[in-house]
Amino acid sequence: MYPDHTRAPAQRVVEVHHSTPLPPAVPVQPNAVPAVASIVLPDGRVVTGYAVNPAQPEPVAPKPAVSRTAVNVALGGVGFLAVCGGLILLTSFIAALTVFITQLITLAAVIFGGWIAVQIFSATGHQGGSTTVNIRKAVIKRNHFHG
Predict the structure, then answer these.
(1) Binning pLDDT at 50, 70 and 90, where does residue 98 land?
(2) Four-point Cα dihedral 132, 137, 142, 144, nearest 10
(3) What is the pLDDT at residue 41?
(4) Cα–Cα–Cα angle for 109, 122, 146, nearest 5°?
(5) Least packed by Cβ within 10 Å: which of 43, 84, 98, 110?
(6) What is the rounded CA–CA span in Å between residue 49 and residue 33?
(7) Rounded mean pLDDT, 120-130
(8) Residue 93's pLDDT band (boundaries 50, 70, 90)?
Protein backbone atom coordinates (compact mmCIF):
# COMPACT_ATOMS: atom_id res chain seq x y z
CA MET A 1 0.00 0.00 0.00
CA TYR A 2 2.82 2.45 0.83
CA PRO A 3 5.93 2.65 -1.35
CA ASP A 4 9.16 1.30 0.16
CA HIS A 5 10.86 4.66 0.61
CA THR A 6 8.14 6.06 2.98
CA ARG A 7 7.15 4.83 6.35
CA ALA A 8 3.63 4.06 7.39
CA PRO A 9 1.96 6.79 9.49
CA ALA A 10 1.82 4.48 12.50
CA GLN A 11 5.61 4.05 12.46
CA ARG A 12 6.41 7.75 12.11
CA VAL A 13 7.57 9.52 15.22
CA VAL A 14 5.63 12.74 15.78
CA GLU A 15 7.19 15.61 17.61
CA VAL A 16 5.16 18.67 18.52
CA HIS A 17 6.98 21.99 18.32
CA HIS A 18 5.43 25.23 19.38
CA SER A 19 6.53 28.06 17.18
CA THR A 20 7.96 31.21 18.63
CA PRO A 21 7.21 34.31 16.56
CA LEU A 22 10.06 36.66 15.90
CA PRO A 23 9.48 40.26 16.90
CA PRO A 24 9.04 42.59 13.93
CA ALA A 25 12.15 44.49 12.95
CA VAL A 26 10.20 47.74 12.43
CA PRO A 27 7.67 49.00 14.96
CA VAL A 28 4.13 48.86 13.63
CA GLN A 29 2.39 52.18 13.20
CA PRO A 30 -1.34 52.43 13.72
CA ASN A 31 -3.43 52.08 10.55
CA ALA A 32 -0.35 50.89 8.63
CA VAL A 33 0.48 47.56 7.14
CA PRO A 34 2.00 45.42 9.89
CA ALA A 35 5.51 44.15 9.58
CA VAL A 36 6.08 40.68 8.23
CA ALA A 37 6.95 38.08 10.86
CA SER A 38 8.96 34.96 10.14
CA ILE A 39 8.89 31.71 12.10
CA VAL A 40 11.61 29.07 11.81
CA LEU A 41 10.25 25.58 12.19
CA PRO A 42 12.35 22.82 13.85
CA ASP A 43 12.97 21.11 10.50
CA GLY A 44 14.53 24.30 9.13
CA ARG A 45 11.62 25.66 7.07
CA VAL A 46 10.74 29.34 7.43
CA VAL A 47 7.14 30.47 7.48
CA THR A 48 6.58 34.14 6.78
CA GLY A 49 3.31 36.04 7.21
CA TYR A 50 1.38 38.76 8.96
CA ALA A 51 0.25 38.39 12.51
CA VAL A 52 -3.55 38.34 12.57
CA ASN A 53 -5.42 39.20 15.72
CA PRO A 54 -8.36 36.93 16.35
CA ALA A 55 -11.65 38.50 15.36
CA GLN A 56 -13.47 39.89 18.38
CA PRO A 57 -17.20 39.26 18.28
CA GLU A 58 -19.40 42.30 18.58
CA PRO A 59 -20.61 42.77 22.12
CA VAL A 60 -24.17 41.67 22.48
CA ALA A 61 -26.48 43.98 24.37
CA PRO A 62 -27.48 42.29 27.59
CA LYS A 63 -31.03 41.03 27.47
CA PRO A 64 -33.15 42.21 30.39
CA ALA A 65 -33.97 39.57 32.94
CA VAL A 66 -37.68 40.38 32.62
CA SER A 67 -39.42 40.83 29.28
CA ARG A 68 -40.62 44.27 28.28
CA THR A 69 -44.19 43.01 28.00
CA ALA A 70 -44.14 41.83 31.60
CA VAL A 71 -42.77 45.18 32.74
CA ASN A 72 -45.44 47.04 30.78
CA VAL A 73 -48.21 44.86 32.21
CA ALA A 74 -46.88 45.37 35.74
CA LEU A 75 -46.63 49.14 35.28
CA GLY A 76 -50.13 49.21 33.84
CA GLY A 77 -51.41 47.30 36.86
CA VAL A 78 -49.68 49.67 39.25
CA GLY A 79 -51.13 52.65 37.39
CA PHE A 80 -54.61 51.12 37.46
CA LEU A 81 -54.36 50.52 41.21
CA ALA A 82 -53.16 54.08 41.74
CA VAL A 83 -56.15 55.43 39.80
CA CYS A 84 -58.56 53.20 41.74
CA GLY A 85 -57.04 54.31 45.03
CA GLY A 86 -57.29 57.94 43.98
CA LEU A 87 -60.95 57.49 43.03
CA ILE A 88 -61.68 55.86 46.39
CA LEU A 89 -59.97 58.75 48.19
CA LEU A 90 -61.88 61.27 46.08
CA THR A 91 -65.18 59.51 46.83
CA SER A 92 -64.37 59.45 50.54
CA PHE A 93 -63.46 63.14 50.44
CA ILE A 94 -66.74 64.04 48.69
CA ALA A 95 -68.75 61.97 51.21
CA ALA A 96 -66.97 63.64 54.15
CA LEU A 97 -67.51 67.08 52.60
CA THR A 98 -71.21 66.31 52.14
CA VAL A 99 -71.55 65.27 55.77
CA PHE A 100 -69.69 68.40 56.89
CA ILE A 101 -71.95 70.70 54.85
CA THR A 102 -75.03 68.88 56.17
CA GLN A 103 -73.82 69.42 59.74
CA LEU A 104 -73.20 73.12 59.03
CA ILE A 105 -76.72 73.50 57.64
CA THR A 106 -78.16 71.69 60.67
CA LEU A 107 -76.15 73.89 63.03
CA ALA A 108 -77.34 77.02 61.22
CA ALA A 109 -80.96 75.80 61.42
CA VAL A 110 -80.63 75.10 65.15
CA ILE A 111 -79.04 78.50 65.82
CA PHE A 112 -81.56 80.36 63.63
CA GLY A 113 -84.46 78.39 65.11
CA GLY A 114 -83.22 79.19 68.61
CA TRP A 115 -82.96 82.87 67.73
CA ILE A 116 -86.53 82.82 66.39
CA ALA A 117 -87.76 81.01 69.52
CA VAL A 118 -86.10 83.61 71.74
CA GLN A 119 -87.73 86.40 69.73
CA ILE A 120 -91.17 84.79 69.98
CA PHE A 121 -91.04 83.89 73.66
CA SER A 122 -89.47 87.15 74.75
CA ALA A 123 -92.15 89.18 72.86
CA THR A 124 -95.10 87.43 74.58
CA GLY A 125 -93.71 88.03 78.03
CA HIS A 126 -94.12 91.81 77.90
CA GLN A 127 -95.89 94.32 75.64
CA GLY A 128 -92.84 96.39 74.73
CA GLY A 129 -93.46 97.72 71.24
CA SER A 130 -95.65 94.89 69.93
CA THR A 131 -99.40 94.50 69.50
CA THR A 132 -101.19 91.43 70.81
CA VAL A 133 -104.56 90.64 69.36
CA ASN A 134 -106.93 88.12 70.89
CA ILE A 135 -108.44 86.42 67.86
CA ARG A 136 -111.47 85.04 69.80
CA LYS A 137 -112.77 88.51 70.51
CA ALA A 138 -112.05 89.89 67.04
CA VAL A 139 -114.80 90.30 64.52
CA ILE A 140 -114.08 89.90 60.83
CA LYS A 141 -116.60 91.59 58.53
CA ARG A 142 -116.10 91.87 54.79
CA ASN A 143 -112.43 90.94 54.98
CA HIS A 144 -111.76 93.74 57.49
CA PHE A 145 -110.44 93.10 60.95
CA HIS A 146 -112.28 94.88 63.76
CA GLY A 147 -110.90 94.32 67.22
Answers:
(1) very high
(2) -20
(3) 86
(4) 105
(5) 43
(6) 12
(7) 61
(8) very high
SS3 content of the chain, % helix, strand, coil (to 5): 40, 10, 50
CB atoms within 10 A of CB 22: 14
Residue 43's alpha-carbon distances to 17, 46, 147, in angstroms, are: 10, 9, 155
Phi, psi at 58, each rounded to 5°: -65, 135
Average pLDDT estimate for 45-64: 80
In the predicted model, what is the mean pLDDT of the chain? 76
Cα four-point dihedral sign 118, 124, 128, 134: positive
Report the distance separating Cα 40 and Cα 47, nearest Å: 6
The pLDDT value recorded for residue 49 is 80
- In this structure, the chain runs to a length of 147
Which amino acid appears at position 10 of this protein? A
- Kindly tell me the sign of the dihedral angle through the C-alpha atoms of 107, 109, 112, 113: negative
| DSSP E strand stretches across the chain | 37-40, 46-49, 139-141, 144-146
In single-letter form, the type of residue at position 12 comes to: R
What distances in angstroms separate CA 144 from CA 22, 35, 75, 140, one per listed residue? 141, 136, 82, 6
